[in-house]
TrEMBL record:
Keywords: Membrane, Transmembrane, Transmembrane helix. It comes from the Bacteria. This is Glycosyltransferase. The chain crosses the membrane at residues 45-72. The lineage of its organism: Bacteria, Bacteria division WOR-3.
Amino acid sequence: MRKFLVFVKDKKLEPNGVRADYLFGDINDAFVIYREKRLKTYLRFIYHLIKFDHTVYLMGFDTIVVLILFFLNYKDFFYDTGDFEYALSRSFRNRFFSYIVFILERWVLKNARKVIVRTDSLKEFFQKSYRKDNIYVLRDGVDIDIFSRFKGIPEKFTIGIIGNLNVLKEGYVNGSDVIKCIEILKDKGIDVKGIIVGKGKAIKFLKDMIKNKDIDVEIIEGWFSFEELGKILERITIGVNIQTNDDVGNMRLGGKIPVYLASSRFVISTNVGDCKRLLPEEFLIDYEGSFDKKFPERLADRIMDIINDKKRIEKRFSCANIAKKYFDYRLLKADFKKILYEET
């Protein structure tokens, strides 16, 4: 049976780390390396790559690891991704680095034994662009048993968003739309709370945004276990998912969608990519281009509609069924093993 050397581009509690933990947790023929301390991690990877006969499994795109495989001409690997990496790189890196990513991603997609993606949109794009047949969809997952215990909502109406908090080249800051939305609602006499959860370079910017302002916004920094995240989500009424309407957002779903659904949050998501394939129309809201300056106003209007018709919140109870159908790790693990071991 094939043995796997799994390189995870994240730490254990970060999105790719959680995915690797669930998918490879009961597979004995896998040695998993999480990217904790970078230099030490890369040296461990090179050691195991050279010393042992492994098929490499790339959980996410790590430029250094891909460069190692590229220079060694090592082509016995699987590639698991939720992103069109070149487009993502262009959104926050310089042109030279993005070109390097373009070359490496093409090499990875051309040479991987199998490519595992997280959305149908990304599969269709890669098939069209690279004419590959060995591409499989395995969505981001969620532990239904854990999140089904956290279905309550707070007394005060609360808008929440979780995920990577970064500053993009266009000047857009992840999480800032929620703050702007709350400011708009405050100006209209509607008092709601905001909770922003995640980690990234935008944390300081977001904290500066709310400083000395008469709005109720809490920023919770870090990545959390599913158990801890479930407790945080019970403090949120509506979970917001913002994917841009461009080559980045249209290819991805975002790991926040499964946990929102499994904990029965009412979801407001931008109407792009797989979001519009999997979510009810009532949960969707338009987003224009890569940076929609009018989106906070549109989001505020939707929130006001829900506040004025509170029965709509009850539709959140249908969300758990969507999570069970598409994102249950118990089902995904069975599909994963077929992808892993079936020869093509």
